[in-house]
Amino acid sequence: MHEAVINLHMHTVYSDGTGTHADLAAAARLAGLDAIIVTDHNVRVEGVEGYFGEGNDRVLVLIGEEVHDQNRDPQKNHLLVFGAEKEMATFTPDPQTLIDEITEAGGLSFLAHPSDPEAPVFNEPDLSWEAWEVQGYTGIELWNAMTEFKTMLTSYPRAIYYAFSFQQVGHGPLPQTLARWEQLLKSGRPVVAVGGSDAHRLIRHLGPLSRLLFPYEDHFRAVNTHLLLPRPLSGVVQHDKALIYQALRAGHAFIGYDLPAPTSGFRFSAHCKGGVSWMGDTLSLNDRPTLQIKLPASAESRLLRDGEVALSSPRRQQLIYQVTEPGVYRVEAYIQFKGRRRTWIISNPIYVR
Question: What does the DSSP assignment read for 22-74?
Answer without folding.
Answer: HHHHHHHHHHT-SEEEE--BT----S--EEEEETTEEEEEEE-EEE--TTSSS
